[in-house]
Specification:
Length: about 180
């Protein structure tokens, strides 16, 4: 994992500190690209934040996505001038899109999934242009219309955020 910035909390390889063990997972793999993700996620344009799915387990209850943080993104000039930081709300949205992908990829019909609740959100370090933000997502609960996922963002060897996301299907996208 690349890292352009360095701050605080480090993931200790001995204790891991991650939602699940990354041993044996090729983080350079690209199982699904943006076009493949778009088949399951309704997000488009600047709001399609995931660049790829790098890993998912067989039952799609766990997955890893990647967001390449670029210096030409819409938020860079204003958050913050001279020291751009990927906004925390965008980090959580990126994780929510991975949760949405995992939820929809197990269903017969793609749905629009919306936030019900974000719990235990904590921002521990920075993510900035030039960083590869890896998103880890693990099911806590999966149902026909609802899901709960634990998520984490990793840059280099640092946990940059963690949050639990509750979501609900709002039904098929308009026009479907």
């Amino acid at each position: 994992m690349s890292s352009a910035s360095s701050q605080t909390e480090t993931v200790n390889p001995a204790t891991n500190g991650l939602l699940f063990d990354l041993a044996g997972i090729d983080l350079s793999a690209k199982m699904r690209d943006r076009d493949a993700i778009a088949k399951y996620n309704p997000h488009r344009g600047e709001m399609a934040l995931l660049d790829a799915i790098v890993w998912e387990n067989a039952d799609k209850s766990r997955g890893i996505g990647i967001k390449h943080i670029r210096d030409d993104e819409f938020w860079v000039p204003g958050h913050f001038p001279g020291k751009p930081l990927y906004p925390g709300v965008m980090q959580v949205e990126t994780a929510a899109q991975l949760a949405c992908y995992l939820f929809n990829s197990r269903k017969k019909e793609v749905t629009i999934a919306a936030f019900l609740r974000i719990e235990r959100a904590a921002f521990r370090s920075m993510a900035a242009p030039g960083d590869d933000l890896y998103i880890l997502c693990r099911d806590v609960k999966f149902g026909r219309r609802h899901f709960i996922c634990d998520t984490q963002g990793i840059v280099g060897d640092r946990v940059v955020f963690e949050a639990q996301i509750h979501g609900m299907s709002l039904g098929p996208p308009n026009g479907s």
